[in-house]
Specification:
By secondary structure, the protein is of the alpha/beta class. It is built from 11 helices and 16 strands. The longest helix has 30 residues.
Length: 347
């Protein structure tokens, strides 16, 4: 089976597939300091909430290896500075902050270790987060595949495959698992403007997996639903509030509205690290606004008048009333979501 190496730790360096260059080129970049990892997250060399979490953990590990402190107090002060820089990269995906908090917690729990052993312990934790993410995606795939039947057509948005995670994928992981079980699944991918993660990444990934895929423009989804050519929608998430509200790539909300109108199930697949029980609803979740050039240009080619005013939020908020099921490694959650999500996060 085709596998994607989105990110890995090798010889005390972080290696990332440069997703900005897909599908034309498959280029792997090597990073040996946390500042370059932070930049890679910001410029979307790596993207997708779970993958960003893994990258942040590995960034902390790289930062730790570069610290030459003799006391724990000084070491921890510098680790906090590393985490502060990484925390400023992207504000919406909670996996980033979850990973940073976990790395700081491990640092404090091992404060009595000699500094070299503490550095090694942080490296081990980052690698552990990497492997846990892949296993969580596998479990999510098994849970979510129960919702898919042979011959179904699934619509997906943005990229929630192996490229968005340490490996295997969230929403696409559900589809991959269904395929492994012998189910024939046809996937409709919308292009996902403005950065085209659907056409550049998801279509590429599905083709590599040998899955039947049809690419559409973003504004064609409603017509397909009207023609009864979509059986369900599966998307990933960048943050899920305690009440089940979902923040995901811009364009998710209108798809959920269309699915509701056409009585089509709307599924969200995300690991527990994406659930933020500290926010009551999606209104509390910050929405990142990105460079206007993403809208006015495709790569370096201008597609709009110069000096035009641009609104470019990277994400939108989907109310829980539009979500049929949330798929996680723990199982399937349905409305009302609060008690189930809270119990999963506090176990």
């Amino acid at each position: 089976m085709f596998t994607v190496k989105t990110i890995e730790w090798k010889d005390d360096k972080v290696i990332m597939l440069d997703q900005r260059l897909l599908p034309e080129e498959e280029v792997y970049n090597t990073y040996d300091d946390y500042l370059s990892v932070a930049k890679a997250i910001e410029n979307m060399t790596i993207r997708g909430a779970p993958a960003i979490g893994v990258a942040a953990a590995m960034g902390v590990a790289l930062g730790a290896l570069g610290i030459s402190s003799k006391t724990f107090e000084d070491f921890y002060k510098k680790i906090e500075a590393v985490c502060e820089r990484l925390a400023k990269t992207r504000p919406t995906a909670v996996n980033l902050f979850w990973a940073l908090d976990r790395m700081k917690k491990v640092t404090l729990e091992n404060k009595n270790l000699p500094i070299p052993k503490l550095q090694q312990r942080l490296k081990e934790e980052a690698i552990k987060i990497y492997h846990e993410d892949i296993e969580a995606n596998r479990m999510m795939g098994r849970n979510g595949a129960k919702l898919l039947k042979d011959g179904m057509t699934v619509l997906t948005h943005c990229n929630a495959g192996a490229l968005c995670a340490a490996g295997f994928g969230t929403a696409l992981g559900v589809i991959y698992t269904a395929g492994e079980e012998g189910k024939r699944i046809h996937v409709v991918v919308d292009e996902t403007r403005p950065v085209l993660q659907g056409s550049r990444l998801t279509a590429w990934e599905l083709q590599k997996h040998g899955i039947e895929v049809t690419l559409i423009c973003d504004n064609m989804a409603g017509t397909l639903m009207q023609q009864k050519k979509v059986d369900c929608v599966i998307v990933g998430a960048d943050r899920i509030a305690a009440n089940g509200d979902v923040v995901n790539k811009i364009g998710t909300y209108p798809l959920a509205v269309l699915a509701k109108h056409h009585n089509i199930p709307f599924y969200v697949a995300a690991p527990l690290s994406t659930i933020d029980i500290n926010v009551v609803n999606a209104i509390e979740i910050p929405i990142e606004e990105r460079n206007p050039k993403e809208v006015t240009h495709i790569k370096d080619q201008a597609i709009a008048p110069s000096h035009i005013k641009v609104f470019n939020p990277a994400f939108d908020r989907t109310p829980n009333a539009l979500v049929s099921t949330i798929i996680t490694e723990k199982g399937l959650a349905q409305s009302p979501f609060e008690n189930t999500l809270k119990s999963w996060k506090t176990v």
